[in-house]
Amino acid sequence: MVSNFNFIVQAKISVCLASYNGEKFIREQVESILSNLNQDDELIICDDASTDSTCSIIESIPDPRIKLIKNRKNLGHVKNFEKAISLAQGALIFLSDQDDIWVKGKVEKVVEVFQRFNNISLVYHNIQPVDAFGNDLKANFPVYSEGKRNSWMFLIRQLIKPQIFGCGCCLRRNNIKSLFPFPSSVYAHDHWIAVWAAINGQVFFLKDKLVKYRQHEYNLSPKKHRTISKILIDRVKLAMQIIVAIYRRFLQSGE
Length: 255
Prior knowledge:
Mean pLDDT: 88
Number of helices: 8
Radius of gyration: 18 Å
Largest sheet: 9 strands, mixed
Distance between the termini: 26 Å
Number of strands: 9
Oligomer: single chain
Helix content: 25-40%
Order of helices and strands: HEHEHEHEEHEEHEHEH
Low-confidence stretches: 1-10
Structural class: alpha/beta
């Protein structure tokens, strides 16, 4: 019988990247990802009907590990990530934005956590904010200590304030079917993924900053502070997502 350790070592890695009008930074990001992968891994890029040269830039990179899927119409970043993840074939699934930079050794450090712990559903690492040119920024981003998180406490903290960014996440394929479909009320793909991970195992935080998280004028994520009412509405939506995830898990355990 093949041990879990050997399974993870030999498993294919999938990276799921959602792109949309990312011509300014997509080449540097793709090249940083590929430099972290083995030859049998895959980089799935779902392009959300870009109107710039994003797709032509991706197509100009001669690497068979790249699988480019072009959406005929714009799905929005949440549904685009859902589509990319649904196409992944790897035992471990990394998430990626289109404009960041992966630090060399990222995959190796994350995989090592999955090798050590069988019950980990998601590994999250810290991120380093940088400017448009890749220079470090002294932004007020959370930095987490290393170790496992209690699943229920993690869920409660998610309700107070979402803790993770998708670009720092890697999922274990186990029970991945229960991740789909993403609830229609979901505000951000990483909110729902965090809920799924806590319900289906434990979350492990790595102290290392393994992604350079680029801050620039073209970021898709909103820059303006949200109103209190909008924050409360989002928290209610997240609570609903948690209830849905627990219900799905309960139904699955009874099958």
